[in-house]
Amino acid sequence: MESFQRIAENRILEAIDQGLFDNLRGKGQPLKFEDDSHIPLELRMAYKILKNADCLPPELELRKEIVQLQDLVASLPDEAEKLKQMRRLNFLMMKMDMTRPVSAQLLEHDLYAPKILDRLQSKPGKQ
Question: HSE (CB half, 13 Å, CA atoms) of 92?
Answer without folding.
Answer: 19
